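User: Predict the complex.
Assistant: Input components as received:
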Amino acid sequence: MDKLTKEDVHPKIIEALLGADSNITVEDALENEMILNMGPQHPATHGVLRLLLRLDGETILACVPELGYLHRGYEKMAENMTYYEFIPHTDRLDYLAPLSNNVAWVLAVEKLAGIEVPPRAQYIRMMICELSRIASHLVAIGALAMDVGALTVFLWTLREREKILDIWDILCGARFTNTYTRIGGVANDMQPEALAKVKWFIDQFDDNFSECEQLLNRNRIFIDRLEGVGIASGKDAIDLGLTGPTLRGSGVEYDLRRATPYLFYNEMDFKVITYPEGDCLARYFVRVDEARESAKIVRQILSKIPQGEVRANNPKKVLPNKVEVYSKMEELIQDFMIVNFGINPPVGEIYSAVENPKGELGFYIVSKGEGHPWKCKIRSPSFVNCQGLPHMIKGHMVSDVVAIVGSIDPVMGEADK
Amino acid sequence: MKIMEFKESLLQKIKDSLPKFEFTSSESIGELTFSINKKDIVMVCQLLKNDPDLSFNLCEDITAIDWARRTDRYTVVYHIFSMDNKFRLRLKCNVDEEDCSIDTVSSVWKTADWEERETYDMYGIKFNNHPDLRRMYMPEEFEYFPLRKDFPLMGIPGSLPLPKK
Amino acid sequence: MGLEAKLKQDGFFTTTIDALAAWSRKNSIWPMPMGISCCAIEMMAVGDPKFDIARFGSEVMRFTPRQCDLMIVAGTVTFKMAHVVKKIFDQMPEPKWVIAMGACTSSGGMYRSYNVVQGIDQFLPVDVYLAGCPPRPENLLNALIQIQEKIGKTRVRDYPDLTLEPQTSQQN
């Protein structure tokens, strides 16, 4: 076994690990502790998250996560490209629910520039947000079950997710990382085929999802592995800044769709799911119930969606239809100006947050009146949720680390930006 | 409206409890911003969090802006949220380039720990009394601060080593 | 297989053994999924019932490099991660192949920035490049078939005997 050397672990991290407070007492404490590296490449770390653990036997005394293995420089790139050019990049942030990130960015820019969006586009955006929430929670539940040992559930939830990806294939042309929203609306109207498929999916979703639940909800092994593991009390959770299902699993009823409503969520009827225990099992149940609530919301949207256009009519800021660009002079010039010089919102700044499946995704944009932002900060939920890991892991065994990371469900694409 | 009353009571409370220090407030696109002096930041944050009516208990985001000008080059920006009143507030402090440091608020909110480390990694602003100020994303041996305006987008060749083929 | 390694001519005996070895190698490739970011999700989708990769012989995706032949690098490789990828590639036993999945690994993709390696062929020998962001699962299966065709043309004699001297580890 190779010893960890200076190339592998920088001395500053070792200092932080050895110096971390540990109030854990073990009955038969060993004389020396072991440093275990749960490296960036690991089947269960949900991406490239590196965890350095200080162990006494199998009990964890301290844990130091190390991020940065997927740091792609989003914020620097955003300062060098226009607002439209950044939309495909937002797809790759939380790559399990790409449409949700698109909607978040576009809402922020529209608020900054003061663009009104037609209602049909808002309803379509709400529908795709909720479908992405279902897709993301399906992967989260499947991955958590797979990490704990139940491999079948993963294949079944992926089968359900493939149906959603088929819907997006028809709607946007891409299964995944579809850049469907545009500033001022969405790219194209929903085809009747896609709408019919959404209806069909929602009708059969409840039964198929119950099949997956039946394997897990009363499974002795699943419950024993997750109950009482990784507890974060409500007060600690708020102090650490956790949001999303991680926070709602600790009994705090905080959902951005209710606290600061955006799109048309204040007209929709849905419950905010909370469970008071604060352990991994509570977070799992929060995700399961939230997927069902999202299906309920989609059903309401399908009955309420109005007819109309899907993109605003704002010559200086919104791209016109491609058909008109190729045939009329006005629209051609409009397209040219917007693509090359950007939309030039007024001088100012905005912080706009939406409820992503993982938590609160916020964009802080500072504009100096130019076509590209002066500064763009991405407040990613997984980054802040990972901060709660050392707090939740202390005192548990090594095999619980996998369950806790799975229940927080971090996505490194957004944690590392 | 509830939000208007809350805003007024907020401004009143700040004026009453800390009459000696100066701050300016501005509002745009429905968001309230306070600009305060960087030496008062911990005091203000403690007041905002611990007061039972205000109770700004969620620290959403900490970041910095590089204005690329000679005086007051950086501005550290804090976004805090009050869950009971459903109100979001922005705090700004100017930091000079020569004395590139500010006090940490991680004693008030634990979220600030990693957020300030990320700001240090990207901009080089030091946070005094921070429990563990290391780099967040870039390797520890990296000498530059990527989000500063004088750092090129493609990086400095040779600053990050690649393994040999 | 030491006897065949010493025979240099293409006789009936050696070509039959070559064909047999190549056939068995190409129909039982065990991939090592180096899943880093979004392409990893499409790689997971290749494993699910709709685009079954098990019917191509890649029944298991072992996450330990010591048991794999094919490394599928799926996701953006940053400078920090490049050392990890190289270390894991070095741990794989010969013969081994590499698929660079997606635009990010082939050439840096849409990320022209300070922390992204503009193409993993700067430090890894790549056999098949896949285009797409992310490439569809059918595309990945196409790449697997191309690797299988490439393996089908190899001879056993292409892989030299490794000496059994103890190698000094770089770490010490």
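The helical segments of chain C are 2-6, 12-26, 38-47, 79-91, 103-107, 137-152.
Let me know if you want any component modeled separately.
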